[in-house]
Amino acid sequence: MYRNAINQLKNHVTRNTLAAGSVRGQQTAAKLANQRPLIANEPSGPMIVTDSIPGPVSNSKLEELSQIQETHSIQLFLDYNRSLGNYIVDVDGNILLDVYTQISSMPLGYSHPDLLKLLNNADNVRSFINRPALGAFPGTDWADRLKNSLMAVSPPGLQHLCTMACGSCSNENAFKAIYMWYRNKERGPGATVTQEELESCMVNKQPGSPPYTLLSFMGAFHGRTMGCLTATHSKAIHKLDIPSIDWPMAPFPKYKYPLEEHTRENAEEDRKCLEMVEDLIHQYNKKGTPVAGIIIEPIQAEGGDNHASPEFFQNLQQIAKRNGSALLIDEVQTGGGPTGKFWAHEHFNLPEAPDIVTFSKKMLTGGYYCKKEFLPTQGYRIYNTWMGDPGKVIMLEEVVRVIKRDNLLENVQECGDVLMKGLNALEKQYPQHINSTRGRGTFIAFDGSDAAKRDAIVGKLKMKGIHSGGCGDKAVRLRPALIFQPHHANMFLDKLESVLSEL
Ligand SMILES: Cc1ncc(COP(=O)(O)O)c(C=O)c1O
């Protein structure tokens, strides 16, 4: 099956890769000639064969599926047998360079040969089909698998771990770990749980169910389950009609770009937001609803790729410590290498590790790393049936090996430089259309001049063979796989230039 996919794609030599004659096009052609692709037989460029995307086959599949499911969020039906490396192939046969990768969730792109090889190993196959309840019946190799995958890339200073299935349940369970830690601190060393606590928690009353709160930031996205949704403030459509809890919400810095021209204003913005954080903690503590923890993304992703400075995060950690609150960094979207370091918070030079770091997406399994004191001291307190999936951890083991073998973090940095330089130049050339390029590694975004312009850019890029995505009110976000190389970056820039010149 895989051979077939390769052979089909091998024959697709693109006719429309470069905007002939443009300076970018000539530069791209020269660079393409020198680069060895990380994925053999990847298409050499996009190819669009329908007059619109989605094309007729995609539309008829949508019609069929909508008889069964709600389908409003579906963009495109893909042919995963033919998608390879950085390219997706849709059911109409369009080949698109994918800079969005399933909302940032394909570390090695599509059908990576080293991942396909895992299926040749009979032990792996047994792990794929015998999914255990990991909290109760892990397999003989579980500890080794964890050491070779998640623990091989654990954030500096975090040596403990809990696996989960998705980003939301990772955050949701991390909240619980924070509350238990906070309560243990309040009880003091050696104290035991009282009968009153055991009885009152059963009817959602104090002291068994303490009125702890969790501070989050405006613009944040932490998932769609009830607790996570209370901490989420990116789009109304996610929250509408769902009851929420009275938790404090602080402003997240809103920076002016380019950063080097606005250092003073942006530092002042940091100061104001941090002051609000501390004020809110005092307010909530005072009214008897102590702030047990603070949750924050290293880069607010769904909310529009909003960045904050290393100093902001360093000070936030100090505030958390001063007030006895835990600091949870949500790396569900940023973790796994796209910023050029394995964990985005490593860019911040925090004096010590955050208390908890959650992950999912590029890590293939969900879960969180934590300090030892955040591990529950009894079973079943943080638990669910599957607690992750050994199959995903086997895949992650291979992903980590390939990232190291192929120096993919260096590749991300190199590619990120190409993208940032190119986007900054395009922003200067077309200031009426795009602005505020920002990013780390290939985790990059820029704004359209308004939401309509952003949508037009994403739509037109698609018709030129680039699959990108939006976030926030007016940002175009780039979330390529770690195997995205400089020649792909140049191809993207070339297509973007052509879109901007036609707007
Ligand atoms: C930062 C962040 N946290 C949490 C989540 C929720 O993850 P999931 O959709 O796997 O529940 C997301 C999803 O986009 C995310 O970006």
Report on this structure.
This protein is globular. The chain has two domains: 2-114 and 407-502, Aspartate Aminotransferase, domain 1; 132-388, 3-Layer(aba) Sandwich (Aspartate Aminotransferase, domain 2). By secondary structure, the protein is of the alpha/beta class. The chain is 39% helix and 13% strand. The chain has 17 helices and 16 strands. The protein has a seven-stranded mixed sheet with strand order 3-11-10-9-6-4-5, sandwiched between helices. A four-stranded antiparallel sheet has the order 12-13-16-15. A three-stranded mixed sheet has the order 1-2-14. The chain binds pyridoxal-5'-phosphate (PLP). Pyridoxal-5'-phosphate is lined by residues 103, 166-168, 171, 221-223, 297, 301-302, 330, 332-333, 360.
Report the CATH superfamily of the largest domain.
Type I PLP-dependent aspartate aminotransferase-like (Major domain)
Helical fraction = 25-40%
Arithmetic mean pLDDT: 93
Global structural class: alpha/beta
Main sheet properties: 7 strands, mixed
Oligomer: single chain
- Euclidean distance between termini CA atoms: 41 Å
Q: Could you tell me the CATH topology label of the largest domain.
A: Aspartate Aminotransferase, domain 2
Query: Which ligands appear in the coordinates?
Result: pyridoxal-5'-phosphate
CATH architecture of the largest domain: 3-Layer(aba) Sandwich
